[in-house]
TrEMBL record:
InterPro entries: Isocyanide_synthase_DIT1, PvcA. The lineage of its organism: Bacteria, Bacillati, Actinomycetota, Actinomycetes, Kitasatosporales. This is Pyoverdine biosynthesis protein PvcA. Residues 264-306 are annotated as: Disordered. Signal peptide: none annotated. Residues 281-290 have a biased composition (Basic and acidic residues).
Length: 306
């Protein structure tokens, strides 16, 4: 815990707001079997409220409070994950509206477009400049995975990319999709790490948060953005489901299979609600996910083949 405590102690000692940086909220999955649409919905809104409340709880023990910067990485690797740049732009626009409505006023959104040196560049040029200046070579990353250093992350990203690409519109074989997902996973990890390297220089001394599980010796804090039926499911890979006054994240197909009813707000789908026996099934699925740890799930499966 020493690596995690050091930056916090600096803010506390100097009487400054604790700055927290969270690379997350990239954009909605392109697979509509997982999400309701391309825009943020109650899943994101609930996660933002959690982060805003976290800042409020920090203020109760540290009066200067906290500043939580969401560093959206969607533009960083949108081409590699199959999300159109126009969808990323719309996602960011709606996300900013949600952030502005938070009561604590401690959460902000930071994207590639907010970087002065990228002003005027096309989206693909932004990604190229970021990669050139901050990324490790892909072959070096492949070697790390072969040695097992990035294996869990590689498998997780590959799984997400395979799921996102496995849509009714895809006409190829599962084997071809799996190969493509493996190749794109390296690009996603490379760009994510480049974004992280850039953020370290942009926000020096900040406390780093991560949506991925982290070991105790890590400099980052792993943070879950809500209860979920799947291990560490995120709002942009699922839907919010009201199971009786509590929201649980799950994939859209699961909510539909449980008989969930879609609730609309402002003329578009927002979340699902479960009634009667379906609520019990959702509770059981959630509790089962809690008993299966992310590390145990990541340990399954063969090592990647090159």
């Amino acid at each position: 815990m020493a690596a995690q405590a050091a930056p916090i102690e600096s803010f506390v000692r100097e009487g400054r707001p604790v700055r927290l940086v969270l690379p997350a909220f990239p954009g909605k999955s392109p697979n509509r079997a997982k999400v309701l649409g391309r825009l943020p919905d109650l899943a994101e809104e609930s996660a933002l409220r959690f982060l805003d409340d976290l800042a409020g709880r920090i203020r109760r023990v540290h009066p200067p409070g906290a500043e939580l910067v969401i560093c959206s990485d969607g533009r960083v690797f949108s081409d590699a994950v199959g999300i159109p740049d126009d969808d990323i732009t719309a996602y960011h626009r709606e996300l900013r509206t949600m952030v502005a409505a938070l009561p604590q006023g401690a959460v902000s959104l930071f994207t590639l477009e907010d970087v002065p040196e990228f002003a005027g560049l096309r989206h693909e040029e932004m990604r190229a400049v970021l990669t050139e200046r901050h990324a490790v070579p892909l072959e070096e990353l492949r070697e790390r995975v072969r040695r097992g250093e990035e294996l869990h992350l590689y498998r997780a990203i590959t799984r997400f990319l395979f799921e996102d690409g496995n849509t009714p519109a895809y006409k190829g074989s599962r084997a071809a999709l799996q190969r493509d997902a493996r190749n794109r996973a390296y690009v996603v990890i490379q760009r994510s790490k480049a974004w992280g390297d850039f953020l370290a220089g942009r926000f020096p001394g900040a406390v780093r948060l991560s949506i991925h599980p982290q070991p105790c010796a890590s400099e980052k804090f792993g943070i879950r953005l809500g209860e979920a039926t799947g291990s560490w499911l995120t709002p942009w890979h699922g839907v919010a489901v009201d199971v009786g006054g509590r929201l649980v994240l799950m994939k859209r197909t699961q909510a539909e299979s449980l008989g969930g009813e879609v609730v609309e707000r402002d003329g578009r789908p927002s979340h699902f609600v479960l009634r009667g026996p379906a609520r019990t099934a959702a509770h059981e699925d959630r509790d089962g996910a809690r008993r299966t740890t992310p590390s145990a799930r990541a340990a399954n499966g063969p090592a990647p083949k090159e």
